[in-house]
Write a structure and sequence with these properties.
With 270 residues, this protein is of the alpha/beta class. The chain has 6 helices and 15 strands. The chain has a single domain, classed as 4-Layer Sandwich (Purple Acid Phosphatase, chain A, domain 2). It is globular, with a radius of gyration of 18 Å. The N and C termini lie far apart (36 Å). The structure holds fe (ii) ion. The site of fe (ii) ion (FE2) has 6 residues, from loops. It holds the Pfam family Metallophos. It comes from Ramlibacter tataouinensis. Belongs to the cyclic nucleotide phosphodiesterase class-III family.
Length: 270
Amino acid sequence: MMTTVVQLSDLHVRAPNDPLCGRIDTGAYLSRAVSSIQALPLAPDAVVITGDLVDLGRPEEYRQLRGLLAPLTSPLFLLAGNHDEVQALRAAFPDHPHLGTTGDLRYCAAVGGLLLIALDTTVPRQAHGALDAQRLDWLARALDAARDQPVLLAMHHPPFRTFIDHMDAMGLLQGAAELDALLRAHANVERVICGHVHRPIETRFGGTIASICPSPAHQIEMNLRPDAPPAWTLEPGGFTVHAWTRDTGLVSHLAYAGKFDGPYAFDDDG
Ligand SMILES: [Fe+2]
């Protein structure tokens, strides 16, 4: 039996008529991605959004977000990023009991044959992320309880260096080494899925693979020079489709959001 999980990240939804940087209609980009997800031939078992759901953390942005996500028919799992205000997020999604009511936004949820563990890396009013002892202890207990269940660990800040230095400077600045050691002790972690850097990036981490999902809207410029200035581009946005079976483990596909020419059958010569 296959389990498929769509990962979206870094939506940065704004209030209506208030485009990001005066020109990026992040809501329109999200709508396009939602349409692409709804058009997938195989409906996903879940849609996981790894943070920066909105841009300024305002209640009206979360109301807008809720409306834009409404066409999704798969179960929805939300995480907070550094642009989110967790209490405003919770207030807009009162029918999502896994979001909790206070403290860190973290939870475990069964998704098909996978256990989704959502870990909060945010630090209030800071761009960078951190895993303190309390967060790591919670994760250790969750992983111990999962035993040999395959785990998808979701978090906003990636626990590895991307070489986009201006983003790494606001990366996971505390707890990455401890997380690496913890994951090495749990061979059942299939993948660490992250956001924050608005590009598809992957590396070996903690004895597993850690990956970053693009934004459906703006991407961070592909510039690995150490003096790269912070900059965004409007390269094609997208999402990731993670497919799992017990025999194969997790296989991940980058998908672009939007309507494109095709598909055409292989034997259709027009
Ligand atoms: Fe972001």
